[in-house]
Amino acid sequence: MEAGELSTVVAVDGPSGSGKSSVSREVARRLGLAYLDTGAMYRAATWWCLDQGVPLGDGPAVAAAVRDLPLVMGMDPAAPTVTVGGRDVGAAIRSTEISSQVSAVATNLDARAELGRRQRELIEAERSGGWSGGRGVVAEGRDITTVVAPDADVRVLLTADEAARLARRAREVHGSDDAAAIAATRDQVVRRDADDSTVVEFQVAADGVVTVDSSELDLEQTVVAVLGVVGRAGDPQARAPR
Ligand SMILES: Nc1ncnc2c1ncn2[C@@H]1O[C@H](COP(=O)(O)OP(=O)(O)OP(=O)(O)O)[C@@H](O)[C@H]1O
Ligand SMILES: Nc1ccn([C@H]2C[C@H](O)[C@@H](COP(=O)(O)O)O2)c(=O)n1
């Protein structure tokens, strides 16, 4: 048996607020797989550019900064971490400042190429070792099923209608889904998805990608639905060697 034969790579994409992070993290935890939040890598790159005084409107400067990004991703789903130059930026990258500016990095094609390369390396490392000891990884983002890991064992597009996604994010950030909270959330969800959609498709499932619509599901039901897709793709212990 060769390293990686029994590993499982689960790729999850979807729009903002569809539940990718919470669902992928819990699926990884229940399956004993590593968890890779690729959106956090774009957020960390944005934090780094701002920290280094790199203007986000200067594409070549952003690309150069991202190539030098001293990023370490901790992939334990029970306690994922994001460290830049030895600093824990896990909380800082969730700020409204980063959320409102991250699309400038996400739409920079050179930055995408660099972060995509690192994501592929992290996923490959989990096939043979890494945090999971070779069990595999759940990686989530916008282009994992299509660009970063189109050969993943399981590929899921997690969707939810716009109203559900806005309400979830409003409750998370403002503690309410009243009209004012929804209005205050629109930029983080609708505008950001519109900008990000100019460089990557995450609203429509590519061939072979299974869509899970969570609009009418709660978090637990969505986790169970994604676990069902993984199960249908085959028990990794029973799967034929690659
Ligand atoms: N099926 C669900 N039902 C209700 N709430 C959910 C569901 N899935 C996720 N949530 C909640 O919605 C919020 C957004 O979820 P999450 O951050 O996982 O989405 P996301 O797709 O990763 O968003 P983004 O791409 O913007 O980071 C969280 O507060 C989460 O707990
Ligand atoms: N594979 C990915 C992951 C994320 N992005 C972009 C889209 C978002 O604007 C930003 C942050 O992602 P989030 O933490 O909100 O999931 O990164 C991308 O383009 N490709």
From TrEMBL:
The record's region (Disordered) falls at 1-22
Q: Which GO terms describe its molecular function?
A: kinase activity
Q: Which family does it belong to?
A: Belongs to the cytidylate kinase family. Type 1 subfamily.
**Where does it reside?**
Cytoplasm
Name recorded for this polypeptide: Cytidylate kinase
Report which reactions are catalysed by this protein. dCMP + ATP = dCDP + ADP; CMP + ATP = CDP + ADP
The UniProt record lists the keyword Kinase? yes
What EC number(s) does this enzyme carry?
Answer: 2.7.4.25
Give residues annotated as binding ATP.
Answer: 14-22
Q: Which UniProt keywords apply?
A: ATP-binding, Cytoplasm, Kinase, Nucleotide-binding, Transferase
Q: Which InterPro entries match?
A: Cytidylate_kin (IPR003136), Cytidylate_kinase_dom (IPR011994), P-loop_NTPase (IPR027417)
- Family matches, as HAMAP family: Cytidyl_kinase_type1
Q: What is the organism of origin for this protein? A: Cellulomonas wangleii
Identify the residues that the record assigns to the Cytidylate kinase domain, covering every copy.
Answer: 10-227
Q: What is its main location?
A: cytoplasm
Q: Which Pfam families match?
A: Cytidylate_kin (PF02224)
